[in-house]
Amino acid sequence: MTGVEALKLMALDEEDLAVVSAHLQDAVLKVGDMTYLPREKRFALVANRFAWEAVRGPKGERRRTGLSFARVLKVQRSRVRAEDPDAVLNLLAVTFTPGEAPSGHVTLVFSGGAAVRLQVECLEAELRDLGPAWETPNRPLHDLAE
User: What InterPro entries does this protein map onto (predicted)?
Assistant: First the structure.
């Protein structure tokens, strides 16, 4: 499409995670596209992210993207219906709240007040585009007046 390279990012601190979060703003995914692997201490999801870095006019593109977190001790969900794997979520932000260093909590914030909170030993995340981009006429809009 635009020739923008596929993203491969690591996040090892709050600054890094802010960059990952910016690239994932307005990503859409299904509840069933998230998984927690407690034996591996890993949480992962696959989403269709809006490629903000590729916007060149009224249209945009989306890319299939994987996001994983290592050293995850616990996962909590709020307003995320685990019993409905086809429910669609719109990711707004990914944040980190420090605890006793280097531990803390990563929160995936979705529209509608939904959230997933990860208790982590330390911050260790990876974002990776998984395939080619496709064009979308639907550019996310945010009403800033609210």
Answer: DUF2948 (IPR021335)
The domain ranges of the chain are: 8-131
Q: Chain-wide mean pLDDT for the chain?
A: 91
Residues 55 and 141 sit within 8 Å (Cβ to Cβ): no
CA 53 to centroid of chain Cα atoms: 16
Specify the residue for token string 């299939």. 64
Distance CA 86, CA 80 (A): 11
Distance of CA 70 to the CA centre of its chain: 14
pLDDT tens, position by position, 41-88: 999 999 999 987 877 776 789 999 999 999 999 999 999 998 999 999
Q: How many CB atoms lie within 10 A of CB 98?
A: 12
Instruction: Please check whether residue 49 is in contact with residue 23, taking contact to mean a CB–CB distance below 8 angstroms.
Output: yes
Residue type, 138: N
The alpha-carbon radius of gyration of the chain (Å, integer) is 15
| Residue for token pair 């690591």 | 10
